[in-house]
Amino acid sequence: MDNLGRKHGVKNFLLTRRGEGYIDVIVTVLAAMMLLVLALNTFSFIALQLNMDHFTKKLLAEATAEGRLSVNITNRQEELRLEAGLPAMTVRWDAVYFNPTQKTVQLGEKMELTVTCLTAFKGIGLFNIPITITTRHTGLSQRYWK
């Protein structure tokens, strides 16, 4: 008889609606926290994209003014990256070189800079989803080489 009473007690406990308000509050708070995490990650991705875009434009402007990819450009690249607080990135240059050994680009020839950064969508410590952010800009060399 005692076991029957317990079975009815568990059944009654599961069927009662007491405490439903607490569960609703907990679910609402968890949903709000997930939305907050999503919003913060989205804003951090937008800020990273804008910083990378600015970095790419500045570095390309300096390379086109110089008309070549030299040690000065490589040094400036690291300077700008640290100044902007950007993480380690992949930087790729595409150009038609006038002199491939010196990496000079003739006046009016196209120089393209592609910057790629691997970051992650960070959850509440449970998961990380990798995301790649890329910016690409082109410019024309402003230097004439003889």
Helices and strands, with pairings:
Blueprint: H1 2-15, H2 20-66, H3 71-84, E1 90-95, E2 110-122, E3 128-140
Helix pairs in contact: 2-3
Description:
It is a single chain. The protein has helices spanning 2-15, 20-66, 71-84, and strands at 90-95, 110-122, 128-140. The chain has 146 residues and is of the alpha+beta class. It has one domain (2-140). It is rod-shaped and about 95 Å long. The relative contact order is 0.15. The model has no long low-confidence stretch (mean pLDDT 88).
Report the structural category. alpha+beta
Gap from first CA to last CA = 105 Å
How many separate structural domains? Answer: 1
Largest sheet, in brief, is:
3 strands, antiparallel
Globally, the shape reads rod-shaped
Tally the helices: 3
Order of helices and strands: HHHEEE
Number of strands: 3
Radius of gyration, taken over Cα atoms and rounded to an integer in Å: 28 Å
Strand residues, percent:
15-25%
Q: How do the strands of the widest beta sheet line up side by side? A: 1-2-3
Fraction in helix: 40-55%
Low-confidence stretches: none
How would you state the average pLDDT, rounded? Answer: 88
Could you name the key traits of this structure?
146 residues; alpha+beta
Short account of what is shown:
The chain has 146 residues and is an alpha+beta fold. It has one domain.
